[in-house]
Amino acid sequence: METMFQYICETPEQCRDNIRHSRELTKEVVDLFCAHDYKRILIMSSGSSYHAALTPKYFVEKILKVKVEVMTSFTVLHYESVFDQDTFYIGMGQSGRSNNTNQAMKKIQDSGCKVVGITGNVDSVMKHNADAIVNWGMGIEKIGFVTKGFSTGVLFYMLFALEAGLRKQMITEAEFGSYKAELFKMCDVMEQSIPVVNAWYERNAAELYDFTRAHVLGYGYGMGAALEGALKMQETMGKACTAFEFEEFLHGPCYEINPDKSVFILDTGGANKDRVIKMYKEVHRITDKVYLITNTDVDDPRALVLKHDLPEYCTVLISILSMQTIAANGNQKWVNPMMEKRVGFTEAMDTKSPKTGKELGL
């Protein structure tokens, strides 16, 4: 039986393989992007794909010097009305069957603009709504509470930015090699961190499974991971869990915290690191159930210390292991008593098109 934890363990090697083959993996998207002097990139997606697109936004902007916007497919479909030839449009969805994403992509095509589909299922209906469709290199993942798909999705955009940046001479060969070396190092740290994360989970297993309400705090590169972490725990354990940008937590949401509530803080480094550590210390005035994911030495059984010196854009794929591990264990334990009604509800809401029968994964 395949499990979420199995996919977590497969992620480092899948990412390594994608880095090794980055030119082939991203070639079609890079070709299309480099064929025109685009001024903006707009990515439309939902759920984990939305979080995966949001996470590398600043990295792509840094390398390619273009504005990146990430919007939900619903918003693009129902509210966006201005489309232009200087925007590079991407529709992203792991299954390729999201009705909102596919309809939004069709809307953009009907406006006279091109759109690229990035998916884990190139044989899905998405291929009928894209000028080009590309597999982002996630391998096979059959469990809907995705883990490998999130991490490889984040990595795909980084590799696309590097390959396009090199092609457009926005980075040098030396810089390109240095970035890829950092990404390979990230994969090593991911692999080394999995047993450390497991030990942390076992140390705090009762609390991590039985919490009643949690807030997940992130910032910058880590905001997508905070959103993804909250979603994973909601999906797999039926727990109330909300993600907030680090500073926005202080502007109202913190007043909900009491000794029964849990707070997860993703320390992804960068200029805010000292303030993150201060937040971790001070929120103990309200609750002891504070879980810090960090590379800073902290003497606290609830703190997950993952030692590395990776840059902020890499750290996020190390930090997400904590949330994914909680969810993977929760998925093994929790039986949703409302599952039949939940499935009926989502099917009635018509969120996805039927499978074609050719899909290997979701």
Quickly describe the structure.
49% of the residues lie in helices and 14% in strands.
Index terms:
362 residues, alpha/beta, Rossmann fold, 2 domains, 13 helices, 10 strands, 49% helix
Notes on the structure:
With 362 residues, the chain is an alpha/beta fold. The protein folds into 2 domains: 4-171, 3-Layer(aba) Sandwich (Rossmann fold), CATH 3.40.50.10490; 195-333, Rossmann fold (3-Layer(aba) Sandwich), CATH 3.40.50. The chain contains 13 helices and 10 strands. It has helices at residues 4-20, 22-34, 47-54, 57-64, 73-78, 99-110, 148-167, 173-203, 205-210, 222-237, 273-282, 312-333, 339-348; strands at residues 40-45, 67-72, 87-93, 115-119, 132-135, 213-218, 240-245, 262-266, 290-294, 304-305. The chain is globular. The protein starts with a helix and ends in a 14-residue tail after the last helix. 50% of the residues are buried.
Strand and helix layout:
Layout: H1 4-20, H2 22-34, E1 40-45, H3 47-54, H4 57-64, E2 67-72, H5 73-78, E3 87-93, H6 99-110, E4 115-119, E5 132-135, H7 148-167, H8 173-203, H9 205-210, E6 213-218, H10 222-237, E7 240-245, E8 262-266, H11 273-282, E9 290-294, E10 304-305, H12 312-333, H13 339-348
Parallel strand pairs: 1-2, 1-3, 3-4, 4-5, 6-7, 6-8, 8-9, 9-10
Proportion of helical residues? 40-55%
Order of helices and strands: HHEHHEHEHEEHHHEHEEHEEHH
Oligomer: single chain
Rg, please? 20 Å
Overall mean confidence score, pLDDT: 96
